[in-house]
## 1
Amino acid sequence: MLSRKFVISNKYGFHLRPAQVMVEKMTPFNSSVKIKRGDGTEVDAKSLLGLMSLGLKDGETVEAVIMGSDEMSAMKTLKELFSSNFGENQ
Amino acid sequence: MVKTNEILKMENIIIGKETETKQEAIERVGRMLVSSGYTTPNYIEGMRKREAEVSTYIGNGIAIPHGVNEYKKEIISTGLVVVQYPDGVDFGKGNTAYIVIGIAGKGDEHLGILKKIALTVQYKKNVEHLRNAKTAQEIVSIIEEGAKE
């Protein structure tokens, strides 16, 4: 199991587009990928409605918990997504 | 958090619209955003572009058309409009939207209501209620109550 904290750095919050990108990039992995909000609420990173239901704002910290055979490469992909701000121009 | 009825006004909810194409539905919610004073007419172009890039169908019978970031400057103030299609609108890839929600989000104040909508429509029974609602008030109540579950 791998876990790592990330800070949301999207001016308009973690809205639909970043969530769609996360679902698209995480779905191919066999590992389970969970995103946990500060208050402990946890959702499946492969569920668009789940991610949207967190209503994450710019500057919020989340924890990603990845578990499974390809967890290393899934975490690597997730790190790249966060460092590229999900491809959004700021 | 901003209350649902401050961003989503009763007069911006249309009940029982007959089915139409995805493009027509996007134009319709776009025109509603314009006539309510939330956006300039140019914003509709941004909505078309967004849909051409990636579908705004979010699952469970719901679509939330909105403009690409480059068109944010066309937003005058944050607002939502809702059109209910009991027979659905074909959003492609086998997806049918029964509720089409046009969004103009200026800052992040619309994330609260999006969160409520996402929480509500995770349950298929709530989607059925939204699809069968007979009044605008019912739509707002379903979203408010669904988010509490």
## 2
Amino acid sequence: MTSDETLFLEFRRGSEAAFNELFARYREPLFGFFFRRLTDRERAEDLAQDTFVAVMKGRERYEPRSPVRSYLYGIALKIVAAEKRKRANHRTTELVAEPGVASGVEAGLAVRKALALLEDTEREIVMLREYEELSYAEIAVLLRIPVNTVRSRLFRARMALKAYLEPLPAGDETCR
Amino acid sequence: MQMKTHPFSEEEIMAYLDGELNVAEGARTAGHLKECGECRQVAADLEQVSRGLREWKAPPVRKEWQAPLVEKRKRFRWEWMAAAAALVVVLVGVRLGTKHDRVVRSVGDIPYQAQRLELAQPDMALQRQAVRDSGVVGGTGVLPPASQVVVPGAEPLIARSAELSLTAARFGSVRADIERIVRARGGYVSDLSASAAVDQAQSLRTTLLVPAAQLDQLLSDLRALGHVDSEVQHGEDVTRQSVDTDARLANLRQTEQRLTAILRDRTGKLADVLAVEEQIARIRGQIETTEAEQKALARRVAMASVQVTIAERFERKMGGDQPGISTRLRNAAVEGLQAVLHLLEGIVLFVLAYGPVLVLLFVMLFWPGRLLWKKLRANH
């Protein structure tokens, strides 16, 4: 399979097929990214589109050395931050949130509530790791913090989430 | 409960589960997890959290979601077409200017871009041809063959350089050896300096320029001349600079053509004609400067520079050139006398330079100091 980076370089040279392939690969993940952060389906779709438009406009800014997914999520993070600022300024009441797919309605609500209890950066680190599946190094670059900080805060956040989510069944040999 | 020490922290277990440890650390952690129930429990807890989080799934994207994006992308295609049209205009202009009769192909066609780049960078094209002629094709060379012509964003242009420091046992033949090696690799000696102080090791510093494709071979040949004390290699990515220069040059040429057309086709006042001519002269100057930059950049990519410092393996000789004892005694006496004179000279200069200030400070501080001294003595 052609790598994302190769596709991006082809797209930059004018290949529409390469763009279509990138679009197909990242359409769902980017929509999921916005949906989980804004819990507003319509807006998540709009912003995911805006991300692709921003990619088109700023395609020359992409550095071939960095992974495409980091580049895309970097743009998406900026867009979501702007959206949150806009919401805060306009004091919009949050729309009735859609929890996710029907099969996991309750689980979705519980996870959202648990994540909401985390501090902002810790929540972002957990989400980038669990949902976007970025490496510690990629998260560190995106959030401009050291890799060790990513690791320690991710651990702290996961331990907090363990307490917030359903209690886990007790292990047979635990004494730590 | 028995306290137990663990070779891994809980964070490291988490990093292992996230695939963030290297192979060796991962294998050690996996081995420990098999044996340690406590750590297994930590891993199970972390996995449980991850499973719990991933139960929150985003709904699938709606099929009609693509529609507005396609609408936006239409605009994007128009932008591309506008850019393509602009490029064709520039290309036609450049080709008319250089009287080359070539067929204009569509944008996105790599050979077209290759021609464009070669047109804009004739020096680089010549270098590429030279490398092809010399039989060095592809490989680790910086200059790619014509089929892999450097297209902005695809193949980076790297300006390579290296610094090599050697100690040679047979210093006498080093200079000839270097000249032979660099000639064999198609390069030349850019500068060379040698020093040979009495009773000290001789050394030679030289800068060599070779086709970039030959750099590795040249370094390998040079290493054989002696013991390598240090070696540093650099690679500077100049792709963006090259693309910028290319674009700037195209724009300048287009502007020059437009001004020339104005001068040719329109009549006006003498002052206007002079103003246009002045503009053309200024643009021409900029074109020449940019062309020089472009050639220099191409040369940096085509030719790698190697700075070599070679020192002789120095062995002090017994006796031989040592002067006699009377000469050395005389020299020592002269040096001693000179040292005394230098010291006296220094003292005089110091007194002249700082004496007045010191006297002033003494006068200012004498009475307060004396008063303080008397009070301290009275207290005791």
## 3
Amino acid sequence: MAETAVHGAHAHPPGFAHQFEDIEQQREAGTLGMWVFLVTEILFFGGMFASYIIYRSLHYPAFEIGSHLLEVKFGALNTAVLICSSLTMAMAIHSAQVGRSKSTIIFYLILTMILGAAFLGFKFTFEWHRDYVEHIMPGFGFVFRPEWGSNAPQVEMFMCFYFFMTGLHALHMIVGLGVLTVLAIMTAKNRFSSEYYAPLEISGLYWHFVDIVWIFLFPLLYLIGGRY
Amino acid sequence: MSGHVVVPVRIYVTVFLALMSLTALTTGVAYIDLGRWNTVAALAIAVTKMLLVVLFFMHVKYATGLTRVIIIAGFFWLGIMIALSLSDELTRGWEIVPKAWGTGMIMPFLSRFF
């Protein structure tokens, strides 16, 4: 009864869930929950990074040969594209926070999606397709080159690491594009306000996390042993 | 706390420019022969970039202590996973009584990484 009275007295913002004291507590719970999920993601990718570290310590020369099969310019280009997309994602959330029009929020979300799609497009066409054509895609006609000598099997292993790590990252990007699509639709349906924008905020955390994974993949895969 | 703070656009743009510069720097450094310090430089730059993204884009600078504890715990557990995996893998070839502790042991140990 009392709750009903309180409820009637307050004008709750849209999106406010009743189990929370106020929108602030709800916001913090959402952020915390998203970070718990991201911690599982850190450990999920961490397993691959741990095995990468171990095999790199065992077969360093082969990893250096493998790294030099990749094109630094495409890795650097894609790093820049992802950083741009992180900025546009942050701007989408900022626009919601300060109460800009929904067309502004949708503009930034679509810009983020275009940059994310550009990343994947570069990855598929310039890199993975080229790797396939050059027979350095494990499982798809991988050919040992004579100059690798006895390192050849471990060079193939490096390429396995490369495809699994970048592939898993690309999978996260594709999921992110789906999430952004949903966010754009929700924005169009006036689901967000400067008081309630939690889905934008926590999806932004996910998008930035995927960016961070790439920030580590770029030097660890493309820049082993330098390019001098 | 996390929601009420609106980060000014100026900070986002500054962080963005820093991230782009660091990307150019890490790429450029790879073309200079620093020996094993190439790896150290690449990882130091990557960690710096990560901190910029986490603190400003992900608003952790403005987050509550509870959220920070969760994040630090995540990285701590990642550290446990990597450190204990390596403590097994890297010590398998060691003799029961190492012939030479000190520089004789430590440098070959480090040289396996980079």
